[in-house]
Amino acid sequence: MKIAVLSGKGGTGKTLVSVNLAAVSPESVYIDCDVEEPNGYLFFKPQDIKNKRVTVKLPQADSKLCNGCRTCVNFCKFNALAYIKNNLIVFNEICHSCGGCLLFCPQKAISEKDREIGMIQRGISGNVRVVTGMLNIGEASGVPVIEKLLQDSRKENKDVFIDCPPGSACMVMESIKDADYCILVAEPTIFGVHNLEMVYELVNLFQKPFGVVLNKCLEGENPAEDYCLQNEIKILNKIPFDLELGTMNSNGQIAVRKHPKYRDLFQNLLQAVRKEARHETASDS
Amino acid sequence: MKIAIPVDDNSMDTSVCISFGRAPYFLLYDTETEENNFLNNSAAASQGGAGIKAAQNIVDSGAEAIITPRCGENAAEVLKVAEIALYKNTNNSIRDNIEALKEGKLNLLDDIHPGFHQHGGS
Ligand code: SF4
Ligand code: SF4
């Protein structure tokens, strides 16, 4: 089962939920798709680390073959190319590596070279295989890194927990594409409702089954809970606002590995997710 | 000397456009012959890399200088390779800026901003 955990913005508890769920599952894979700011590995502190570079193809023109016809410049819909003073200039960060310019160059003047945009790090932490995507600073899009991250997970028969990037942009869409179930994490504030709405629209767009985890819950008013009730959104669990949990979290400790109280909480959550996901697949067929 | 200015409309009475890559038109003005021409900015509608495409169009037009309020990093790189000088406008009037350039009163543009990408979270 593949479970994606998402939230409208960072700091909502997305990593807390995905890390603890992965840790409480008997055998699992945790994939950190928050490639601009991965932090799941700080909790897991994985061993036996292996790194793999992620590269994309970048076009390169041979100035001896190029006759300046500009077919490539006109073709590139991202405007990643310019032809100035008898030279083809390629803007690395804008190029989407579609390969079109290479295909359409009448002179066969364009070849491809590899450009590194990030890294994938794999390691082990007890019962969890920890996979982390890291995007190099200054890169515009982490989508190629996320694609690589999720490629391998397709073959997985263990539980896979995907820690998504915050927000609802294209990197998040890439991350939830093959998830069986989505968990939306929300904070109990008006602002939290706004963030929840964003991801709620996204999972609806992708027609993914989903449920909400309400984090940092206090006694009294909870606008996020009201929103869920109004829209008939399944609430999977409520995590109380709790200083002990906050301290463990800021110290990079995994709550379920430290305290039976949290072990129970996340075990229950995992069970609720399993039940919901199974229910969804059953009603699908 | 041929100069280019991003403008809001294809008329000499319009004003300097605040955007470079997304300007609807470029005025091409020849300071010797006083001829003017308006170039339709085909880059204005592009999803990304508008500055690069606009810069390419201006280079192709044969302009040797540009007067603009601002310019993105990538467009600036194209213009640098093409050795086109970038000047900052003083106000929104096309005529004032052309006069100021003729008199050597315009400063070079140093406000080069990093590009706005279409990706990433918000
Ligand atoms: S299409 Fe090929 S020959 Fe034409 S400008 Fe591009 S690289 Fe040069
Ligand atoms: S590979 Fe595609 S995106 Fe990159 S420069 Fe060529 S046409 Fe443009």
From TrEMBL, chain A:
<dbReference type="InterPro" id="IPR017900">
    <property type="entry name" value="4Fe4S_Fe_S_CS"/>
</dbReference>
<dbReference type="InterPro" id="IPR017896">
    <property type="entry name" value="4Fe4S_Fe-S-bd"/>
</dbReference>
<keyword id="KW-0479">Metal-binding</keyword>
<protein>
    <submittedName>
        <fullName>ATPase</fullName>
    </submittedName>
</protein>
<feature type="domain" description="4Fe-4S ferredoxin-type">
    <location>
        <begin position="57"/>
        <end position="86"/>
    </location>
</feature>
<dbReference type="Pfam" id="PF01656">
    <property type="entry name" value="CbiA"/>
</dbReference>
<keyword id="KW-0408">Iron</keyword>
<dbReference type="InterPro" id="IPR027417">
    <property type="entry name" value="P-loop_NTPase"/>
</dbReference>
<keyword id="KW-0411">Iron-sulfur</keyword>
<dbReference type="InterPro" id="IPR002586">
    <property type="entry name" value="CobQ/CobB/MinD/ParA_Nub-bd_dom"/>
</dbReference>
<feature type="domain" description="4Fe-4S ferredoxin-type">
    <location>
        <begin position="87"/>
        <end position="115"/>
    </location>
</feature>
UniProtKB/TrEMBL annotation, chain B:
<dbReference type="InterPro" id="IPR036105">
    <property type="entry name" value="DiNase_FeMo-co_biosyn_sf"/>
</dbReference>
<dbReference type="InterPro" id="IPR003731">
    <property type="entry name" value="Di-Nase_FeMo-co_biosynth"/>
</dbReference>
<dbReference type="Pfam" id="PF02579">
    <property type="entry name" value="Nitro_FeMo-Co"/>
</dbReference>
<dbReference type="InterPro" id="IPR033913">
    <property type="entry name" value="MTH1175_dom"/>
</dbReference>
<protein>
    <submittedName>
        <fullName>Dinitrogenase iron-molybdenum cofactor biosynthesis protein</fullName>
    </submittedName>
</protein>
<feature type="domain" description="Dinitrogenase iron-molybdenum cofactor biosynthesis">
    <location>
        <begin position="15"/>
        <end position="102"/>
    </location>
</feature>
